């Protein structure tokens, strides 16, 4: 008979698989939809897809505060998942650019709660019941990878509209799984405003947020422009999905072994290594290589994203005061998947129009290497730290 904690791990795995299946089936192909089906320019695509991350900058910390204050993150998570799936269908009925901007903002307001809240619940669970977060989160990488391939094939054969139905169905199924997740309460022992003040005043936390902006912003923006890069090099919509399958699929095995590597080398060392791999990849894409080499190098995403996510998340969680851990994770997500994503998606779109896709990826590479430099600074501060990092 399956024990309670083992069953909970299975539920978390299904949850991450489904939520990232929905995300992976929609957002990597959304820029292709806007360009080929709606006829938007690179600047319009960049503006439209940067609205959501801007909204996330404000709503992710708000969701974190609500979860911290109420101690009911599971209920907030289910609400966010249900509404996100419903709003995703709105693109099928809108035919104006202004309407799409409003929809993107509303969609992001609810979507912004999903990843940081589920991450916080999962992290609290593994610290209470044992195990590694990476073993749960890797199913998200598998879901994202399988969705890009499956939905890419379906979009090629049935039409681009299928990506919106797949998105909604996946998230609604995810909400059903979410009803059964363990109820992980968030403690609220000290004043929240005081805790936030403590976070911002910690040099390592502030610098790590800046590094996350420079590193993870391009990672997220790549989900927008990789499809356009692939088509620029002569690929098809189905080929875009296959490329994402190789890229996102490579994350799972690295997430599986991230825990032992983090224990052996340390969170910052693993994060720095992942960052350097990511920066080299973007610079290589700026050279506009052949499709063969794009396919080959997509597996480097396992080293970069597959290691960066669990190592960075654990560092933020361990660095934050206990009473604002969910808020700290939300701030971290807001800076990377929110502000960073917005900036690099917006600027990348205009650079696509003005210079070309190679300039977009050159900017991403240089930004990532700048982030690596800041991580080295944070690593140096570890030797002189005054506030202990919890392990």
From TrEMBL:
Species this protein is from: Melghirimyces algeriensis
Official protein name in the record: MFS transporter, PPP family, 3-phenylpropionic acid transporter
InterPro entries assigned to the protein according to its UniProt record, in alphabetical order: MFS_assoc_dom (IPR024989), MFS_dom (IPR020846), MFS_trans_sf (IPR036259)
GO cellular component: plasma membrane
GO molecular function: cytidine transmembrane transporter activity; uridine transmembrane transporter activity
PANTHER family in UniProt: BLL5896 PROTEIN (PTHR23522), NUCLEOSIDE PERMEASE NUPG-RELATED (PTHR23522:SF4)
Pfam families in the cross-refs: MFS_1_like
Transmembrane segments: 12-33, 45-64, 134-152, 158-181, 202-219, 225-247, 267-286, 292-316, 328-352, 358-378
Keyword Ribosomal protein carried by entry: no
Cellular compartments annotated: Cell membrane
Domain Major facilitator superfamily (MFS) profile: 204-391
Entry membrane topology: Multi-pass membrane protein
Keywords noted in UniProt: Cell membrane, Membrane, Transmembrane, Transmembrane helix, Transport
